[in-house]
Amino acid sequence: MQSVNVAIAGATGAVGEVLREMLVERSFPVDQIRLLASSRSAGKSFEFADREIRVELLDDFDFRDTQVAFFSAGGSVSAVHAPRAVKAGAIVVDNTSEFRQQPHIPLVVPEVNAHRIKDGLETGIIANPNCSTIQMVVALKPIYDAVGIERINVATYQAVSGAGASAIRELAEQTTSILNGNGAEPTVHPVQIAFNAIPQINTFEDNGYTKEEWKMVLETKKIFEDESIQVNPTCVRIPVFYGHSEAVHIETKEPISVDFARDVLMSAPNVILMDEREAGGYPTAVEHAAGTDPVFVGRVRKDVSHPRGLNMWVVSDNVRKGAALNSIQIAEELLPILN
Ligand code: NAP
Ligand code: 3JM
User: Which ligand does the CA of 134 lie closest to?
Assistant: First the structure.
C-alpha cells in the first residue's frame, strides 16, 4: 500500500497519544508524520516509529502536503482548522462532535456503516462518533440486522480518560489526596470524581438530558440510518481510568432468544462474547477493555419485564475503539480509494 503523509491535530492529548501509538502498532503506511497542538506544546518532541518528531503549532500549519489529517483537539479547533485542511487537499477524520450532525458528512463506525466512508471523498471530512455510541452500536449491529431494534435504554459507566488528560490527572490527584487524609477540590469534573459516580457528562440540554446523552440519541439514529430507533441514555462518569462500561437494555422488533443473540454476537466482527454465569464470567473495563481493541459483551439475558426485551453489558477501551482505533480503521478503509 502506498504511504501517505499524516497529520495529527491534538497530538499531545489523551486521544492524540493513542493515535500516535496505534498508527505504529497497526503499521499504518505513514510517510511523513506531523504532530500539531497549541503553543502550550509546540516545540516538545515525541518518538514516532523510531523517529523524533517535534510538535508544531496547528495555527500556522500548512496542510498542502497532508493526505490524511486526524483531528482530536476539541470542537472549536476542528471548526476552524478542519475546513482549512480540506481546502488544502487533506481528508480529515474528525474525532470531535463538530460535524457529526451535518447531513452530508458521514458518521462512521466501520463494523456498522463502512459503506459511508467513500462519501468522505466528496465532503473531505469523515466524523468519528462519540466513544459511548461507538461501542454500543458495534455490539448492537448483529442484533439489529437479525431481528431489528425498536428501543434502547442505556446507562453508561464512563472512564475519566474520555474527558482528556486533565481529567485523568484529576482522578489520580484526588485519589491520592483523599487517601492521605486531605480534601479534593474539583476543577475538571463538576464535583469530586474520586470514590464517586457523577450523573453528568458535559453540559445540560433544555430537555434535561446532558450533551453526552443527546449525542448517543442522535448518533445512533444516524449510524443505523434509522430515525425510528428510540434511545434513552443516562451517562455517568466513574473513577476508572480507561474503559467505558454500559448496561444496555433493548426492545427488539421481532422476539429473540438468548441463545440466538449469543450466536450472532459470537460471529460479529471485533465483538468478544464473555458470558459465563459465574463469578468473573463477564468483561470488565480494567481486566479486559483497557489497552485492547475489541468490544466485549457479557451478561446477556432476557428482560423479564418485556416480551421482546434483552439485557447486556458492553465494555470497550474508550480511547482506542472509542476514538483513536475507530479513526484509524476509517483511514485504513479510505487508503485504497484515495487518489
Ligand atoms: P486532551 O487530552 O485535553 O487533549 C487536547 C489536545 O488538543 C491536546 O493535544 C491539546 O494540545 C490540543 N489543543 C487544545 N486546544 C488547541 C488549540 N487551540 N490548538 C491546537 N491544539 C489544541 O483531550 P482528548 O481527550 O485528547 O480529546 C481531544 C478531543 O477529541 C476532545 O475535545 C473531543 O472533541 C475529542 N474526543 C473524542 C472522543 C471520541 O469518542 N470520539 C473521545 C475523546 C475525545 P496542547 O498540548 O497544546 O494543549
Ligand atoms: C468527547 O471542547 C470540546 O469541544 C470537546 C468536548 C468533547 C467531545 C466533543 O464534543 O467533541 C469531549 C469529549 C467529545 C466527543 O467525542 O463528543
Answer: 1
Interatomic CA distance for residues 218 and 227, integer angstroms = 9
Ligand nearest to the CA of 41: 1
145 DSSP 8-state letter: H
Closest CA to 219 of 325, 298, 322, 84: 322
H/E stretch holding 186: none
| For the CA of 134, the nearest atom of ligand 1 | 40
E strands of the chain, at which residues?
Answer: 4-9, 30-37, 45-48, 51-57, 68-71, 91-94, 125-127, 149-158, 230-237, 244-252, 271-273, 295-302, 309-316
Number of H helices, E strands in the chain: 9, 13
pLDDT along the chain (339 residues), means of 10: 94 98 98 98 97 97 98 98 98 98 98 97 97 99 98 99 98 98 96 98 98 98 98 99 98 98 98 98 98 98 98 98 98 92
DSSP-assigned letters across all residues of 266-330:
HTSTTEEE---SSTT-S--IIIIITT--SEEEEEEEE-TT-TTEEEEEEEE-TTIIIIIHHHHHH
Query: Distance (Å, rounded) from C-alpha 243 to C-alpha 323?
Result: 12
Of residues 29, 3, 33, the one with CA closest to residue 20: 33
Q: Is 133 in the pocket of ligand 1 (CB under 6 A)?
A: no
Place of cell 469534573: 189
Using alpha carbons only, how large is the chain's radius of gyration in Å? 20
- Pairwise CA distance, residues 76 & 78, whole Å: 5
**C-alpha cell at position 55:** 510538535
The three-class DSSP label of residue 56 is: strand
CA of 145 to the centre of ligand 1 (A): 34
- Burial of residue 221 (number of CB atoms within 10 Å: 0-12, 13-18, 19+): middle
